[in-house]
Structures are given as structure tokens and as C-alpha cells.
Design goal:
mainly alpha; 10 helices
């Protein structure tokens, strides 16, 4: 790492100041929206969707500041990256408040939460989820491999996968997925494919987290939950072979978890 000169420090501050001012504006809007939500007993879903969108955008601004730091000062701006991480965690929280954080549950248990978003088309839902996922990938890449947050990313991605699933109207998806003549056919297929990838990854990553790091039973339970949630998606989409495969995988993991508990190999 090159020595940081006063000239380069001033240059960085000058270039990053407009971005910091932009963040302040979005923070003010976040506070305004939260105050508005507190005053309303219902009908807050769209305000929270705006909070999600803004939190994602703020995370990208923080990441831009970090990139400026790397380019001008030849060093990461860990404060900016940490704020970006917190912004994406808030995005997960806000979206979870709208659609619930149920990992493996029948659609009927949370479908009522989506009624308030009936005018939020699947195209916009898919775009929001893709944008969210891209921001997470960018953040993980910016932190790099040598980071204390390695296993925290598993939780961040898992929460993201959950709200991505719960934002999708599964009743409509179960219909549109099979009919190329439906207006939302293509975006539904892309959305469902994304969910399959996310839940496959989350189930494996929580298992890895359990096996290689924490040995915490709740991590293994989440691995099983994500596997069973993926089984539910496969079943809805008529894929009996993969549905049965996920059922078997979840059962193998459950037996392993029970065995580890009995033998004292887990926490």
C-alpha cells in the first residue's frame, strides 16, 4: 500500500463529498418514511418497499466511496464498506417486515401479507430482487476473501433468498410458469430459476457453516429448512425428481444433526 499523501487525501475528500451529501439526503428520507410508517396502522407496504430500494442504493454509494478510496488512496475504506453492509441488512429487515421471513412454509401462511402489494407487478419485484442480489455480490467482492464477515455472508444471503421467495406471488407463479401465452411467463420462469439457485446455495452454505465453523445446531436446522423450502418450490413447479432429491437430502442432514447432538459434536 502506497503512503497516503496530503494531496491524495484532499483529492479523495473532494471527490467523495458529493456522494456523502447524497447519502445524507437518503438518510433523511429514510427517517421521514419511518416516521410516516409509525403514524399509520396499515398500508405501509409500499413505503417499506421504498425503504428497501433506498437502502440498496445507499449501499452502492458507500461501495462507490470505497472504490474511490482504493483508486486514489490505494486502500480500502472499511468504514464505507461497513455502512454498505448495514444498509443491505436494513434492506433485508424492511422487506422481511413486508413479506415475512418464513423460510419453509406453505404460501397460504404468508399470502395475506402480499395482498397489500397487489399493484406491484412481478417485473418490478424481479428487478428489485436482482438489484438486491447484485449489491450483495458487489459488497462481498469488495470486502475480499480475507474478512471476518466470511460466515456472516451466509446469513445475509440466506435472509435475502427468503425475502426474495416471499415477495413472489406463488399462486400466480404456479399458473404463469407453465403457460408461455401468459403475459408474465418469461419473468416468472426467470424468477423461479433464481429462487432455485438461491435456495440451493443457502442450504449448502448453512451446512458448510455448521461443518466448517460454528457447529451450531441452528445453522444445520437452517440448512435443512432451505432444502425443504427448495423441495416445496420444486413440488409447486411439478419437478417430482428434484423434489424427492431435496427431501432425501434434508432427511440425511437431519439424521446427521441428531447424531451430532447425541455424540456431543454440536453446540
Amino acid at each position: 500500500m502506497a503512503k497516503i499523501t496530503e494531496e491524495s487525501r484532499i483529492r479523495f475528500e473532494t471527490k467523495s463529498t458529493p456522494y456523502r451529501e447524497l447519502i445524507k439526503k437518503y438518510q433523511q428520507r429514510e427517517k421521514m418514511l419511518l416516521d410516516k410508517i409509525k403514524q399509520e396502522e396499515s398500508g405501509t407496504a409500499y413505503s417499506k418497499i421504498q425503504l428497501v430500494d433506498d437502502a440498496i442504493y445507499m449501499a452502492t454509494i458507500y461501495m462507490t466511496i470505497n472504490k474511490m478510496s482504493v483508486a486514489i488512496l490505494d486502500t480500502k475504506n472499511n468504514d464505507a464498506l461497513e455502512q454498505a453492509r448495514k444498509s443491505l441488512m436494513r434492506a433485508n429487515m424492511y422487506l422481511g417486515e413486508v413479506v415475512t421471513k418464513l423460510i419453509d412454509a406453505p404460501y397460504s401462511e404468508y399470502s395475506e401479507k402480499l395482498e397489500e402489494l397487489e399493484n406491484f407487478p412481478i417485473q418490478k419485484r424481479y428487478y428489485l430482487i436482482c438489484k438486491f442480489g447484485l449489491a450483495i455480490d458487489m459488497l462481498i467482492d469488495d470486502f475480499g476473501d480475507n474478512t471476518k464477515w466470511r460466515w456472516t455472508w451466509v446469513d445475509l444471503r440466506g435472509d435475502y433468498a427468503t425475502v426474495a421467495k416471499n415477495l413472489l406471488d406463488m399462486a400466480a407463479a404456479g399458473r404463469d410458469y407453465f403457460d408461455p401465452n401468459m403475459q408474465d411467463y418469461e419473468v416468472t420462469v426467470r424468477y423461479v430459476r433464481l429462487l432455485k439457485e438461491l435456495f440451493e446455495d443457502s442450504s449448502e452454505q448453512f451446512r458448510n457453516k455448521y461443518e466448517l465453523s460454528t457447529r451450531r445446531i441452528d445453522d444445520m436446522r437452517k440448512a435443512i429448512q432451505y432444502a425443504l423450502a427448495l423441495k416445496r418450490i420444486y413440488t409447486l413447479m411439478g419437478d417430482k425428481e428434484n423434489s424427492e432429491e431435496m427431501k432425501k437430502k434434508a432427511e440425511v442432514w437431519r439424521l446427521r444433526m441428531d447424531s451430532d447432538q447425541k455424540e456431543g459434536r454440536s453446540n
